[in-house]
Design brief:
By secondary structure, the chain is mostly beta strands. It has one domain: Beta Barrel (M1 Pyruvate Kinase, Domain 3). Helices cover 11% and strands 36% of the residues. It has three helices and eleven strands. The strands form two sheets. The protein has a seven-stranded mixed β-barrel with strand order 1-6-5-9-8-7-11. The protein has a three-stranded antiparallel beta sheet with strand order 4-3-10, with no helix packed on it. A hairpin with an 8-residue loop joins β1 and β2. The longest helix has 7 residues.
Length: 151
């Protein structure tokens, strides 16, 4: 849970999907979250407990010094947040995203194959900064929707 001074409410600035794995996701502007699956039409949907991935725009910004062309979806995240402290989350935390409910299921991930971003910059933030969730209650999520920790 966020500590005092950290943002416990923010907004979604990108809803990203890709039809196949191993490609940069594109901001679709909206997507349907399906319970225990992920985002409809996304290649990573249905992947056990890592159904939806999140990363903050602030973390993407830290990598732009090395790769100015980075944008939401560059790290294959589904939801890009702004003004929300993802680093304060713990496994089991519940997140209200628009009218949907997510449960944090994993923080960071091991990269078995280095991504294009890693080869270009020598670093990738997803293994350290990425948040993965299960979809508990589905529905539409759109750019501009709020994201908040549920009490």
């Amino acid at each position: 849970m966020p500590t005092e001074g950290q943002a416990s409410r923010g907004r979604i600035i990108a809803v990203c999907t890709a039809p196949s794995k191993g490609t940069v996701k594109q901001n679709a502007g909206a997507g349907r979250l399906i319970e225990e699956f992920g985002i409809e039409g996304d290649a990573h949907g249905g992947f056990a407990h890592r159904q939806v991935s999140l990363i903050s725009s602030e973390d993407i910004e830290t990598m732009r010094a090395k790769l100015p062309g980075l944008k939401p979806g560059s790290f294959a995240e589904n939801l890009t947040t702004e003004g929300f402290d993802l680093s304060s989350l713990e496994i089991g935390d519940s997140l209200a995203v628009g009218g949907c409910l997510l449960e944090v299921s994993q923080i960071g991930k091991e990269c078995h194959n280095k991504c294009q971003v890693f080869y270009k910059s020598g670093d990738c933030i997803m293994p350290k900064k990425g948040i993965f969730c299960r979809v508990i209650r589905g529905g539409m999520v759109r750019v501009g929707d709020s994201i908040a920790v549920c009490d």
